[in-house]
Amino acid sequence: MAKKDFLSLKNLTKHQLLDIINIAQEVKAHPQDFIQFFSGKHVGLLFQKPSLRTKTSFYLGAQQLGAASIYYGPQEVRLGQREEIRDVSRTLSQYLDIAVLRTFSHQDILEFAKFSSIPIVNGLTDLFHPSQIIADILTVTELKKDIKKIKFTYIGEINNVCNSLINAFSLLGGNLSIATPEQFYPSQETIKKIKAKFAETGGTFNISSSPEDAARGADALYTDVWFSMGKEGQTKHKEKIFKNFQINDKILEKAKNNSIVMHCLPAHRGQEITDAVFEGDNSVVFLQAANRLHAAKAILIFIWEK
Fold first, then answer.
1. What does the alpha-carbon distance between residue 120 and residue 113 come to, in Å, rounded to a whole number?
2. Per the confidence metrics, is the pTM higher than 0.90?
3. Is residue 1 part of a domain?
């Protein structure tokens, strides 16, 4: 049977995505039932970018499932520089049972997976961050139950996190609203395709340049940093463009009183979110962070199960 990779949520079916969420719920509720799942196995983490939550969740998650973990930091392997990606992939396939990659280029992880004989997990690329969204869906499900009955609003740049949110909500038939500056809109053709995908599953997709409109009546507000790792040189440029795309008290007032505020972290308080909202009663940021562990375990179990 062919190996099963976890590279993007768009490669999953609705049933598969729900299966991962269900596994995460089971692992969280009954961790002792899974402590020998990967007994005698080895999971490697090969990261080109710094990491706190992704590293910790997959490293400890593998160990708590009974596997041994090994971590390769950004300066150790230097994927594609010190050694060709295909050579690293085939070498690690001889030692490991699963590899988790955190890369700059999504193309790098696609090449790595192509030459690998073991399952590969996307721990983040420039295009997608699917493991984060598994934790996010778990969090929303815990707090809001039926994801199809809520309005979920993302405010900020359409980045790797947002791309994976779009993939998840289009599969599940959720209602997703995005507020981003108009110059950062996808092409009209892309928006049309996204809306068609949502329509197929009974969901809705809206995009606007008004954070106030997007936040109105929202059950959940989500944001991320205005510039990603490796793009810090764009700080002043982005701050000017995105200054009105901040989750603050004014935006929070537009949402429902019992709305939740989410952030994938790390956060730049005072930019995409105010300190008051980040630390406020609506914030569930650290529940999200805690759920990264259960999401990581679920992903590892999912790709290993035949």
1. 6
2. yes
3. no
Q: Name residue 177's beta-bridge partners.
A: 153, 206
* H-state helical runs in 155-284: 160-172, 188-200, 211-215, 235-242, 249-254, 275-278
- State the residue range of the domain holding 197: 132-288
Q: Are 219 and 261 in contact (CB under 8 A)?
A: no
C-alpha distances in angstroms, 81 versus 75, 78, 199? 10, 5, 43
| 2 Cβ contact partners less than 8 Å away, ≥ 6 residues apart | none
The one-letter amino acid at 99:
A
239 shares a domain with 223: yes
Which 3 state secondary structure label does DSSP give 153?
strand
The predicted pLDDT at position 290 comes to 98
Pull the structure tokens for residue 3. 């190996």
CA angle 148, 151, 152 (to 5 degrees): 100
pLDDT for residue 80: 79
Residue 276 is assigned to a structural domain of this protein = yes
Residues 97 and 84 in one domain: yes
